[in-house]
């Protein structure tokens, strides 16, 4: 997850900028106001693709006619996703993380070895494009929040909302772990959405994981409630989405939020204050990793191993766990 914060494209474009562009285009599409100008005014115009052409199933829910409509925003998102994937591959090869991940997967397979999602199967083609994969396969990814996730697996929630679901680590893991629960996996990146759909299928939970695309206040309002837990990790969109005025139903939902103070200094304090009338808040700080616990990685260069185990996390990121007051 934190991979993108360290990366920069060869042109110097900040890595996070790629998904920000996608998010901006999505916002233009979902806004009721007319888009301002330039690229976004064209992006909202629908184009037609022949059936069978590669389209985003999340962007066209329920579409079943012989000609599919897909917005230019979706095409733009696909181009961004392809660029993102190519840059990630290049970076991972260059740093050694990609080859290390491939060797790990060859030796230990693609099943998560421990943690709350032990036994979950990863999608093979995703291996070379995520620096986070080794911690995920080891089952130690974001270990700081494991107690919250373990609780969620047995707390009786019937709905999970995962905003910034990526390739589906949490979305598919929660669907596997809570039989019968429905999971809404929101992400604007089409590459990860396709991977998430495939991973849900390979783990036998495709019927309960909805690839939900861009998350709006309205969508969140329709899904939040006392039996819904909400996970947010969307590169700063937490400040906009966690808005009691626009999403009052959030008052009844338990929330686990990755807080990006690195992008928005003071964000944690502001959100704790904003949600304090309705939620009991606890901040969870990132903890250092102990490489000694992972003999599987003993052959790796120590610096590379530490980088992988640290999930490429940068300073200024923590989690907020918000539990509704009785
Ligand atoms: C850091 S990644 C998430 C990683 C994932 N939670 C994990 O731990 O494996 C953040 C994701 O948020 C997505 N994103 C950003 N803003 C969004 C929004 N408003 N709605 C849906 N997804 C969004 C990006 O496309 C990106 O894939």
Helix/strand class: alpha/beta
Dominant shape: globular
Q: Architecture of the domain at 142-324 in CATH?
A: 3-Layer(aba) Sandwich
Q: What's the arrangement of strands in the largest beta sheet?
A: 5-4-3-6-7-9-8
Q: What percent strand?
A: 15-25%
Helix content: 25-40%
Cα gyration radius (Å)? 19 Å
**Which stretches of 5+ consecutive residues score pLDDT under 50?**
1-22, 31-70
The main β sheet shows up as: 7 strands, mixed
CATH class of the domain at 142-324: Alpha Beta
In total, the number of strands is 9
Fourth-tier CATH superfamily name of the domain at 142-324: Vaccinia Virus protein VP39
Write out the distinct hetero groups bound to the structure: S-adenosylmethionine
Mean pLDDT: 80
Determine the CATH topology of the domain at 142-324: Rossmann fold
Distance between the termini: 33 Å
Question: What's the order of the H and E elements?
Answer: HHHEEHHHHEHEHEHEHEHEHE
Please, how many helices?
A: 13
């Amino acid at each position: 997850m934190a991979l993108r914060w360290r990366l920069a494209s060869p042109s110097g474009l900040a890595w996070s900028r790629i998904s920000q562009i996608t998010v901006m285009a999505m916002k233009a599409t979902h806004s009721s106001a007319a888009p301002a100008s330039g690229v976004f005014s064209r992006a909202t115009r629908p184009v037609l693709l022949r059936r069978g052409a590669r389209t985003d199933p999340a962007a066209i829910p329920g579409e079943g006619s012989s000609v599919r409509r897909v917005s230019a925003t979706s095409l733009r998102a696909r181009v961004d996703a392809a660029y993102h994937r190519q840059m990630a591959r290049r970076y991972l090869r260059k740093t050694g993380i990609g080859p290390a991940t491939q060797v790990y997967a060859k030796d230990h397979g693609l099943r998560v070895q421990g943690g709350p999602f032990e036994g979950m199967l990863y999608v093979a083609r995703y291996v070379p494009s995520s620096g986070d994969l080794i911690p995920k396969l080891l089952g130690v990814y974001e270990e700081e929040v494991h107690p919250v996730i373990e609780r969620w697996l047995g707390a009786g929630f019937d709905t999970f909302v995962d905003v910034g679901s990526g390739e589906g680590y949490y979305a598919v893991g929660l669907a596997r772990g809570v039989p019968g629960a429905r999971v809404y996996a929101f992400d604007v990146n089409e590459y990860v959405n396709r991977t998430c759909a495939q991973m849900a299928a390979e783990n036998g939970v495709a019927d309960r994981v909805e690839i939900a695309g861009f998350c709006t206040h309205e969508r969140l309002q329709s899904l939040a409630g006392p039996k819904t837990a909400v996970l947010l990790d969307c590169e700063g969109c937490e400040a906009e989405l966690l808005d009691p005025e626009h999403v009052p139903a959030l008052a009844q939902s338990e929330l686990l939020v990755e807080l990006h103070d690195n992008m928005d200094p003071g964000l944690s304090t502001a959100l704790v204050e904003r949600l304090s009338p309705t939620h009991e808040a606890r901040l969870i700080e990132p903890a250092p990793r102990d490489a000694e616990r992972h003999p599987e990685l003993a052959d790796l260069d120590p610096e590379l191993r530490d980088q992988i185990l640290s999930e490429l996390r940068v300073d200024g990121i923590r989690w907020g766990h918000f539990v509704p007051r009785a």
